[in-house]
Write a structure and sequence with these properties.
Elements lengths: L2 H8 L4 H10 L5 E2 L8 H18 L6 E2 L2 H10 L5 H22 L3 H15 L8 H18 L5 H11 L12 H12 L14
Parallel strand pairs: 1-2
Helix pairs in contact: 1-2, 1-3, 2-3, 5-6, 5-7, 6-7, 7-8, 8-9
Amino acid sequence: MSVAAAVVRALPIAGAVAIAMVAVAQADGTGVIAAVTAPADRAALATAIVDAIAAEAGPGRGRIVEDAVVEARAAVATGAVPVARLVGFRRVREMIDDGWRAFQRVQIDFAQSRLAAARSAAEALVALPGGAELYADAALRLGAVMQYRRVPEAPAVIALALALDPERPITLAEFSPDVIDAIAAVRAAAAPLQRLHVVTRP
């Protein structure tokens, strides 16, 4: 009888979990989630399942996490990002690159559409590290395309990009002279003044 079977016989509640975890134990690691009605039994159950996986999988099994739920919560608390969100970064980056290549090839309609879609997709990433800069890049390039088409909203789009990533270098290695001039004009423009009426109460 295998070690896993022994654990299942000794701890019936863990039966399905133990079998499933042993079956999927692979080189990239395995996480254990012990579900019990009595919290006091949870640690012992998790330890037993880990031992069963280790014995059954043998060498090369990868890392085994005794409490996958606790570790996942700790990772999120320290700033870890789900894989699906990270995939979003790559997808937005690809959209930006596609749109900018189209602009350089004078495929203006596609460029504006692609960069606008990239900016919209980047909205969900703004709160994450690097998300604001990615959004700013999409907006800056979209603004450049809009400026080329003389769209009235172009300066506002460029201004937003510069506000989100003010330290971003603007060089001839990346942008054409007319784009650099448009960005410089936005930077040089005075911020509009607004009259405010403030009322205070003692």
